[in-house]
TrEMBL record:
<protein>
    <recommendedName>
        <fullName>HotDog ACOT-type domain-containing protein</fullName>
    </recommendedName>
</protein>
<dbReference type="GO" id="GO:0006637">
    <property type="term" value="P:acyl-CoA metabolic process"/>
</dbReference>
<feature type="domain" description="HotDog ACOT-type">
    <location>
        <begin position="87"/>
        <end position="209"/>
    </location>
</feature>
<keyword id="KW-0677">Repeat</keyword>
<dbReference type="InterPro" id="IPR033120">
    <property type="entry name" value="HOTDOG_ACOT"/>
</dbReference>
<keyword id="KW-0378">Hydrolase</keyword>
<dbReference type="GO" id="GO:0047617">
    <property type="term" value="F:fatty acyl-CoA hydrolase activity"/>
</dbReference>
<comment type="similarity">
    <text>Belongs to the acyl coenzyme A hydrolase family.</text>
</comment>
<dbReference type="InterPro" id="IPR029069">
    <property type="entry name" value="HotDog_dom_sf"/>
</dbReference>
<feature type="domain" description="HotDog ACOT-type">
    <location>
        <begin position="284"/>
        <end position="401"/>
    </location>
</feature>
<keyword id="KW-0809">Transit peptide</keyword>
């Protein structure tokens, strides 16, 4: 027996991550700039760590904000180029990095990519809102939502990958950031377009002391492209506000026949299951669920749970839900929408509940599976449960999986209750925009 592996000689384990606030080894005055309690969680991807190191001067103020300092007195005017940031994954030469992101099909793991996108968008928002004045208290920035995120082509883990983004629009206290994921096309690609994925993140600013909405620096687009992006973002913001006010009224006052017809199909399953359509399934029979206790390693610079981590976990559950539903390996297409309704804290009991909301099978070569994931912060001691996040994902099935299961049909999902019917119609209408 190897003596090094005996119980009396335990194998030492060392931390492989270093804090971005570590003082140079040549400085013997202190081992760290900040107490351990003020470090961000150590559950972070290589991208998040790199962003911390790049922007450590900005983030140091956020870790220990001067709450008694006055707020920013004068809003600055900044251009999109001043907030622009780009990160590069050297997948072609760094095999360890490649292995950290590889999935079962030699493509990039989408869940980990969602984490990185959120981290980069957050860094860009901080960069735009910074007034570079150490005598004022910084803003508290949180992810409010993610607009449609579209995967335009598979992302290989063997080719270098680049993510670039900048602020494209600001309101009084809200900021929209557009991110583009690019990768050189392969020889087998059907298009020469290098853009693999686009995403729009919306952040909102709060005063660190009062937690009320706070104004953010203005944005001055310069180039024609920046002006077009600003106008498009302005239109999206107007549409979001209108939909928020009108969605429920539309379903209550209109499309009654559509509502009743969809609900009637589900009632056959409930009342006469022997006569129900075998190509349909009740929404409740597509559900999956998992839960976790939120740990300190998953916290962000504000001490709350990192939004990218929540998206990662939601995506993994949505993928599993689509897989169990279709009976074939799914392929990710879009993040339709993500709402961050309330923050999630360290120690929270978080439950993720998923279901297939509806399917679209008109195109038999690429059937669509629309999955909803709702995250609940559950507090057993108070007998309460509140929705913290809503996620919507769209999948299809991988071509090779469909070829092996020729003739297998994707079922239609039908509701059993009025509340389920309302959710289905709301998402169908939102996705049609």
């Amino acid at each position: 027996m190897d003596p090094s592996s005996s119980p009396s000689n335990p194998i030492p384990i060392f931390a492989t991550l270093t804090s971005p606030f570590q003082i140079s080894p040549n400085n013997n005055t202190s081992s760290t700039k900040k107490p351990l309690s003020l470090w961000p969680g150590m559950y972070h991807s290589p991208v998040t760590i790199a962003l911390w190191e790049t922007r450590s001067n900005i983030f140091e103020r956020l870790l220990d904000p001067p709450l008694d300092a006055p707020p920013q007195s004068e809003l600055l005017k900044k251009t999109p180029s001043q907030s622009r940031m780009t990160i590069l994954y050297n997948f072609s030469s760094d095999y360890i990095l490649r292995e950290q992101y590889r999935d079962s099909w030699n493509e990039v793991r989408i869940g980990k990519l969602l984490e990185d996108l959120d981290a980069l968008a957050g860094t860009i928002s901080v960069k735009h809102c910074s007034d570079e004045d150490s005598t004022t208290r910084p803003l508290y920035l949180v992810t409010a939502s993610v607009d449609k995120m579209v995967l335009k082509k598979p992302i290989s883990v063997d080719l270098d990958l680049k993510i670039s983004g900048a602020v494209t629009w600001v309101g009084r206290s809200s900021i929209e950031i557009q991110l583009d994921v690019t990768q050189p096309p392969t020889e087998a690609a059907e298009t020469n377009d290098s853009v693999a994925l686009t995403a729009n993140f919306i952040f909102v600013a709060r005063d660190y002391k009062t937690r009320k909405a706070a104004p953010v620096n203005r944005l001055i687009p310069e180039t024609e492209q920046e002006k077009l992006l600003y106008e498009a973002a302005e239109a999206r913001n107007t549409l979001r506000k209108r939909k928020f006010k009108e969605d429920r009224k539309e379903i209550e006052n209109g499309e009654v026949k559509r509502f009743e017809a969809l609900l009637a199909e589900g009632r056959i399953f409930c009342d006469m299951p022997a006569l129900a359509d075998r190509d349909s399934i009740l929404l409740k029979d597509t559900c999956l669920e998992n839960s976790l206790i939120c740990q300190p390693q998953q916290r962000n610079i504000h001490g709350r749970i990192f939004g990218g981590f929540l998206m990662h976990r939601a995506f993994e559950l949505a993928f599993s839900t689509a897989y169990a539903f279709a009976g074939m390996m799914p392929s990710f297409l879009e993040v339709d929408h993500v709402d961050f309704l309330r923050p999630v804290d360290v120690g929270d009991f978080l439950r993720f509940k998923s279901c297939v909301l509806y399917t679209e099978c008109e195109n038999s070569d690429q059937p669509l599976i629309n999955v909803e994931v709702v995250a609940h912060v559950t507090r057993p001691e108070f007998r309460s449960s509140e929705v913290s996040n809503r996620f919507y994902f769209t999948f299809t099935v991988r071509p090779e999986a469909k070829a092996m299961n020729n003739g297998h049909r994707i079922r239609k999902v039908v509701p059993a209750t009025e509340e389920e019917t309302r959710r289905i119609i709301e998402r169908m209408d939102a996705d049609s925009l």
